[in-house]
Amino acid sequence: MLMKLGVNSGFSATRNCMLASPAVFRRQEFLIRCLGGYSSYQKGIQGVKSMAGPTSEADSENILRAITPTLDQSKHKGQAGKIAVIGGCREYTGAPYFAAISALKIGADLSHVFCTKDAAPVIKSYSPEIIVHPILEESYSVGDEDQASISSKVLAEVDKWMERFDCLVVGPGLGRDPFLLDCVSRIMKHARESSVPIVVDGDGLFLVTNCLDLVSDYPLAVLTPNVNEYKRLIQKVLNCEVNDEDSHGQLLSLAEQIGGVTILRKGKSDLITDGKTVKSVSIYGSPRRCGGQGDILSGSVAVFISWARKLRAAPDWDTSISPKNPTILGCVAGSTLLRKAASLAFEDKKRSTLTTDIIEYLGRSLEDICPVN
């Protein structure tokens, strides 16, 4: 069997090795060299990489300028975006606030938060700008006999608002209560039926990882995993470990297997794919990794996706802008703006930089890249 691997080290063996963990990959590579099959094995790797194509740095600032709408006196409330965040429970009230307020700071007109009754007063106290809906329930407050009726009431309440939203952000501060997650699953299904884009972050990714059908084959779904969330997705979907030696190919495979979703893999460089192309955003950045930056990103991406969808349908859209997919464009713009705001905040605050500091630099960062005048 070992000799067979050395002689016939073609595409299938190469792909299996590339989907393995880095440690396994190195051991297999050493074994193949010892058996004299390294030359053909290396050609196999090059063949796979050439088919996938190289990761290219996104034209970040030009994309951000292209999809940011102009401001003029003819606009009315709501045209610049209406965003809803599904999240917020007893333990986590900051995350949904960060996502919702970031959307407003970038330029969305309205920002809603659908949260539990315990979380609502706290989130309301953070800012009067956010519309808070205390409709979600957790298991501890719902008897088994009442779960079906309460779940239906929750869905009916969200349904009254759904057609107004340009994008949903699912997951910030959501928690992992089983009944709460079941209600959110039903909300996501209804959003799909209404063709509303969904940005999934935080505990929303925990939900999706365990129920891929919620986003599978939905091109308006965006997943924004950090390193640990990405690891769980890879293990669940591809049944292997993260392979950073072929991050491009593995990310493509993940998006393809889930089926048409867009994935924004957060890291030193953010990698973004819809299963067809991979774009990298490495511009700007900060060494300060305070918690909550992912919530800023999810709220930002939601706004830019809503803008990209509207502007791409306009007759004066610049057709030279690439890529064409509005979810990719939204991810590139959101990633770019967060990175710039984080870098400016770090220049000012250094080690004491907090998420609230970064939020305060979102407006200035957008103005620097895309001036109002």
Total number of helices: 16
As a whole number of angstroms, the C-alpha radius of gyration is 22 Å
Q: Report the structural category.
A: alpha/beta
Helix fraction by DSSP (H/I, runs of at least 4): 40-55%
Layout of strands and helices, then pairs:
Layout: H1 2-7, H2 11-18, H3 22-34, H4 38-52, E1 56-57, H5 60-67, E2 82-86, H6 94-106, E3 110-116, H7 120-126, E4 131-136, H8 147-162, E5 167-170, H9 178-193, E6 198-200, H10 203-209, E7 221-223, H11 227-237, H12 247-258, E8 262-265, E9 270-273, E10 278-281, H13 293-312, H14 326-349, H15 355-360, H16 362-369
Parallel strand pairs: 1-10, 2-3, 2-5, 3-4, 5-6, 6-7, 7-8
Antiparallel strand pairs: 8-9, 9-10
Helix pairs in contact: 2-4, 5-14, 6-13, 8-9, 13-14, 14-16
List keywords for this structure.
373 residues; alpha/beta; 10-stranded mixed sheet; 16 helices; globular; disordered N terminus
